[in-house]
Write a structure and sequence with these properties.
By secondary structure, this protein is mostly helical.
C-alpha cells in the first residue's frame, strides 16, 4: 500500500511539474476563454499548452508502464492519441463536471483532463 501511495504521489508530482514548467496551471475559465477567442494567436496558445499537457501525461504513463507500476489510464496502442483527442476528452469531462459541480470555472484543467482520460480509457484489472 505504501509503495502504491508513493507511486501515486510521484505521478501527480511529475504531471504537475511538467505542466508547471510550461506555464502556470490553467483554469477551466481561462481555457474556455482562450479556446473561444476570436484571435488566432490566443487560440494557438491552447494548442501549444495542451500539447505540453498531453506530452507530460503521456510520458508519465509510459514511465509507469516501463517501471511496472500501475498506469493512470490505458489508451489504445494504435492509433496514438492526438492533442485533439486530449482536447475533446477535456471538453467532454468539463461538460460532465458542469452538471454536478457549481464551481468548475475555477478548477484546473490538468486534473480534470486526467480524470477524463481515466474514465475514457479505464484499465482492466
Amino acid at each position: 500500500m505504501t509503495n502504491s501511495v508513493n507511486c501515486t504521489t510521484l505521478v501527480v508530482f511529475l504531471i504537475f511539474l511538467t505542466v508547471s514548467i510550461a506555464s502556470a496551471n490553467m483554469t477551466v475559465k481561462k481555457y474556455i476563454e482562450y479556446k473561444n477567442s476570436p484571435d488566432s494567436d490566443t487560440r494557438d496558445v491552447i494548442g501549444v499548452y495542451m500539447r505540453g499537457v498531453k506530452e507530460g501525461i503521456s510520458w508519465t504513463n509510459a514511465y509507469l508502464k516501463a517501471e511496472n507500476y500501475q498506469v493512470l489510464f490505458c489508451p489504445p496502442e494504435t492509433p496514438a492519441l492526438s492533442t485533439k483527442d486530449y482536447t475533446d476528452i477535456l471538453d467532454n469531462i468539463i461538460e460532465q463536471y458542469r452538471k454536478i459541480h457549481d464551481d468548475v470555472d475555477n478548477q484546473y484543467i490538468e486534473p480534470i483532463l486526467l480524470r477524463g482520460l481515466e474514465r475514457t480509457f479505464p484499465c482492466k484489472e
